[in-house]
Amino acid sequence: MRIPAQSVCTAIRDDIVxxxxxxxxxxxxEVLARRYGVSRVPVREALRTLEAEGFVVTRRHxxxxxxxxxxxxxxxxxxxxxxxxxxxxxxxxxxRTEAHxxxxxxxxxxxxxRARRGQSEDLRSxxxxxxxxxxxxxxxxxxxxxxxxxxHKIAWMYAVESPERPxxxxxxxxxxxxxxxxxxxxRARLLTAQHTERAIRAHRLRGQPPTVRVSGSQHRxxxxxxxx
Length: 228
Fold this sequence. Notes:
This protein is mostly helical.
């Protein structure tokens, strides 16, 4: 049975994001094919896709390697997120289905419950599912793809500290869902922009000390420590 290149691509991407393949390390078709139990053909296709997404670079006479993004490239991703997530929420207010609302409300209830119990690991997963569902509710395949790629790349480049007040964070999620349910696109956009800006402050570049934070106003990485 032929394994689709998309499945191989997902597996390689997940291993890059989780650090199995370190930045700058070489990715050979033969080794990857053995690791995932596939032929070299889907591996080759997957590497081309990952290169287009920015996870892989091909060096002349050296083959494919895991990309090594700069701090500025990482900071740019957060700025793009600040632009796209509010747009996705506004579109969701116009295009969401009752099924989307049911899932979003269920995630908010679970998030609020876990926040009261202090279950931070569960909150991280629930937050990811919430924003993924909100993107799906936008009904825009291109936007969904961009937001999905952004989440993968940000997870690769940044560690995220748990919010100091998780209950407040989930109250913000709830307010966004209320605006989406009412079809209030501008309110959904505004609330998501405010929520995203606050969330970005908890990001720090992987491999850097906790004092290296992202400025919520300028969206730039302060490599010297403190705030930009």
